[in-house]
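Box 3.1 A note on notation
Throughout this textbook, protein chains are presented in two layers. The first layer is the amino acid sequence; the second is a token string describing backbone geometry. Keep the layers aligned when reading.
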Amino acid sequence: MQTPFEILDVDEDASDEAIKKAYLKKVKEYPPEQGVEAFQRIRSAFEKIQNEKQRRNHRLFHHEKPEFDLLLQPSLRPGAIQRPDADLLAGALVEAALEDMLKIQSSS
């Protein structure tokens, strides 16, 4: 899985301005009209590292994030059907499962 830095083709120590320029360049290369999936990857990468605070958070937590994203958003899995309601349902199911686990744990 590519990191946001690799997707935008910038160094990890790039400035906010360099990241913004790289984002705009990639958006011109892959506009939403050509492919929504590529555009969403580029936008998501930019949102994760667009400023210093977000880059710091990404560096601290990026190892755990992809697996958690796949759990909550099954449409990110290869070959998945793209349905907004599926993401909501998956999130609700995960939340309900966590609540059930907490109830079982507290009753023990």
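The chain has a mean pLDDT of 76. The helical segments are 4-8, 16-29, 36-49, 52-61, 65-72, 84-107.
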